[in-house]
Amino acid sequence: MYKVPDGIQYTKTHEWFKLDGDVATIGITDYAQHQLTDVVYIELPKVGDTRKAGSVLLTVESVKSAEEVYSPVSGTVVAVNNELETKPELINKDSYANWMAKIKVSEKAQGISAEEYRKLTGE
Amino acid sequence: MKTPLYEEHVKLNAHIVDFHGWDMPLYYEQIITEHLAVRNAVGIFDVSHMGDILVSGKDAASFLDYLFPTAVSKLKENSCVYTSFLDDSGKMIDDCICYLIDKDRYLIIPNAATKDKVFSWMNSRKGKFSVNIADISSKYGCIAVQGPRSRDIASDLGFSFPEPFKWLSADWQSSNEITNTKSVIISGTGYTGEKGIEIIAESKAIVEIWKLLVDKLANYNGKPCGLGSRDTLRMEKGMLLSGTDFNEDRTPTESSISFIIDNSHNFIGKNKIDPKPKVIFRGIVMKEKGIPRTGDEVFIGDRKIGSLTSGGYSPSLSKGIGLGFMDRASAKLGQEIIVSHNGKKIRGVVVRPKMFPLEIPPSPS
Question: Which of B24, B239, B256, B279 has the greatest number of C-beta atoms within 10 Å?
């Protein structure tokens, strides 16, 4: 039922990331957006902020709850998807097309595969 | 547990969650669109998880008068009332709707999570009253049809539309031990603050009616709605949620529902209800971005005046809103407050527990 595309990496905390060279594009999974319900605010990090893998990257507020999105990688934020500030509902429409932040990775990053993530979410 | 409509929810691709042991739809498409469908058109909700307790016998009226702060013996034919079970200290055990079905016969609809507690409570206080208390919840379902176009869709199905807090029975090929006729109950009730009805019927009939409603919904810009929008709808209207806003810890006066109290009769907890309590149930509306949540504390400056029992996003106002119990002397209408949420401070204002349509009173001097 939930979309789990192949070819990208996942985390046990329901983020996805895709590495292009040393830049990781990061978002949340379809499973996560279904659990969150309608996203109404998103508090993005600033370009230049640094994050450790597993630390809080940003906060998403939905109708039901406020949830933290963790950084799957360590490094420096090089871009954020500003469109989400005015259209947070895009996360519910397609949480893979609508990435949240890009981080220039400072340490080797390791996520879990789509197959492992499917098992984790009971698909 | 599953309601008789569970398979229908699956067919509609509902996002199912556990609600006090019940597999219920949280939403079908989106909470916000379902919420707005109810405010602007019509929405249908499965509320079959709620209880159905039939009280009959020659002392039914006097027994219920003793249990409830409302004098249900004064109910007129084909009427119902919103009231609450109180414990010996006047604290609310559960709120419910009580119907006068017939002479010596009442139907009570308690909340799903508290139904067993209420049933035990009633039995423990039965004493010498000549009444029969029957939990018939498992045999009956209920659909709430809510919104400005609820009358149109009901009429399309051939149902008459009762006034608020009135009910009528509509012929249906289905047994009904509540009214002892082949019929379903159409009641002028709901918990969204919109015009609407609730249809109570035996399980098979409730599935038939749900299917008919689903087929008609699109003609009225209607939507099937889950518990997510049910919660945001009731919150905007400041309606209490049993087990969330109160849990045997608040009196009706504290909960801003003094209207349920009729002091012309004796009832359990009567003498323990303070008519001017120190705390009072209030609403808050945020004046800046940020969503208050259940448990957040409310301050005036550095002084804590209460905390929130409900909080969230209002789809009608596109703002954060909350409900909670606050120091009565401090939480004046229009009072500017600060909600502390995860260490962040969000500015807001105290309002009556009815945030939609929104009227922000002038700040008290």
Answer: B24
